[in-house]
Every structure is written in structure tokens, then in C-alpha cells.
Amino acid sequence: MGFHLPLIFALLSLAAVALANHAAQPAPQLYWNSVLPNTQMPRAISELLLPGSTNEEKSTNIMSAVGNGKPTDHKGKPENIPLSNVLYNNVYDPPTDNQLHYKNIAIFFLEKDMRPGATTNFQFARNSNTATFLPRESAQSIPFSSNKLLEIFNHFSVKPTSVEAKTIKQTIEECEAPGIKGEEKYCATSLESMVDFSTSKLRTRNVQAISTEVLEKGATMSMHKYTTMPGLNKLAGDKVVVCHKQNYPYAVFYCHAIKSTVAYVLSLKGDDGVKVKAVAICHLDTSEWNPKHLAFQILKVKPGKIPICHFLPTDHIVWVPNHKSA
User: What CA–CA distances, in Å, run from 117 to 21, 237, 270?
Assistant: First the structure.
């Protein structure tokens, strides 16, 4: 039997292309493909995978982003306050002065308000925190502990008295702080560790990972009125894992598994025509929240009386079981 050389060459070429594509993929993406082959990667994760540059380049280049948010402007008013600090503040504590800055913005809403035609004012700002993922091995080689702050500062060439150093210190302290009642928390310093934590808490690898996405190009840095369109989708399960990005030289996500919580995906359309695929989280049991929590001030309700919901910013990821495994 003769050899079909053209066919053999074609197969070898395809194999070479496949190997080249495999080699070009960053290690975190390879791990995702291996562990979660049937799970689509959300934009909040895929935009943090940048093959082709070295890990040190990635870490160094984003230090300006770590320190670019000043806590106050020249008039002393809150500025660049992370929304995650409002959404995931210790629910036993009253809101801080900075968090009260959001009091007149529709951060929190009721579950019954997620209906077609409902309108809300919100700002789905694109993620300006562009620090990318390190492979797990690289991340594990760098200290991540309040006991090793000087070593961390030296690694990233950060002065201990700088704004960047303060931001690094705050992020580590938040990660080391104990979780609230009913919360299982973990700070993932790599995509691989985020995948492992989320799938272990959901007890399945058959999961969905979803983030809020602004579907049109361009920034949405100002407030807009959004109308809820038909097609509300309630995701599976009453336990979700939510991961939100921290300010750090490389991608670090604060993840927590929250009981008595459900997730929705909504289609929104802004008054500027921009469409948003928005992820909303609803907390079904708020009975132990501080009565002065910002959510109760905005919604004029009392703890434990009714589910309270909020949108997820674009740099958050919600993990839920697939319907087939729920």
C-alpha cells in the first residue's frame, strides 16, 4: 500500500499548528481548558490573559493602575471608591462616609423589580484595573502576607511610603481578615486557584462562570438610565461563588461562597443605546445584616423582610452550577 504523501503532509501541518497554538496559550488558560473544557470563559477573565509578555513585565506595567485611585479629591469628596467595598462591606457594620457617596445611586434593588420595562440609573464602568494573571507557580513564588510586606515591596520596587504600598497592604489585610458569618472566603492569587476554590465550593466542575459585560465598544464612564429587556434568566442553585478583583500588582480575586443567594442574568439597554449583559446577585436572607447597612437606607426596608439584590461590576465573576448538575 502506497503512502499518500499530500495527506500525510497536511496532517503534519495541522498537528504543528495545533502544537503552536497550544504553546502560545498562557498557563492559566491551559489549566482552564483542562479542568473546565465545557465552560465558556467570561470576559472578566479572558481580558486578563495576555500571552507574549513576561510575568515581570505584566506586574511592573500595572503598578500605576494600582495607585491611580486617590481616596479623595481636592474638595475632600469621595472619589474612585471601589464599588466592591460597598457591595461586600462587612454587613454587621454601618456604612462608612465614603460608602454613603453611593446613597443616591441605584446600587441595591428588590428582586421583584427585575421585570421587563423597569428602569434604573447605574454606571457600568469598564474595568480600569488591568493587572493580569500570573501562572500559579509564579504567584506562589511571591509572598502574599502582611508579615512579608517589605519583601513584597522590594519585589515590585515599591517604596513603603507610597500610595502603591498602601494599596498592596490594604488588599492583603482584607484577604487575611476573617469572613462574616456564613461566608467561606478565599483570595485567589491565580486563575488556577480561583477555579479550584469555586469548583470545590460548588462541588462540581460542571459550572458556569459569568460576568457583567458591556456589549458595545467604548467606555461607559458616566451614569445612564437602563431599561430591563425581556429574557430574565435565573441561574441554577441557591449557593453561588462570587469573585471580585482586587487592586494588586497582578490579578488577585477576593472569592466567597455565599449561602441563601441566587444569581440572575439580565439584558439591559441604556438611554445611549448601549446594551449590557448584567449579572445580578440577590441575597435571600439579610436578617443578620446591620440595620444601618446602606442597602436598607436606599430601599427603605428592614433586615430579613425581603431579598435584596445588586448588579455585579464588570470585573466580578459569579460561579454557579450548570442546570444539569444542580
Answer: 45, 26, 12
Question: What ranges in the chain are assigned the alpha helix state H?
Answer: 5-24, 27-35, 43-46, 55-61, 63-66, 83-87, 136-140, 149-155, 163-176, 191-202, 294-299
252, HSE (Cβ side, Cα atoms, 13 Å): 25
Cβ pair 39, 321 in contact under 8 A: no
Neighbours of 73 (CB within 10 A): 10
**pTM metric for this prediction:** 0.79
Quickly count: other Cβ atoms within 10 Å of residue 121's Cβ: 12
Tell me the pLDDT tens digit for each residue of 130-175.
899 999 999 999 999 999 999 999 999 999 999 999 999 999 999 9
pLDDT digits (tens, 9 = 90+) for 239-272: 799 999 999 999 999 999 987 889 999 999 999 8
Cα–Cα dist 76/86, whole Å: 19
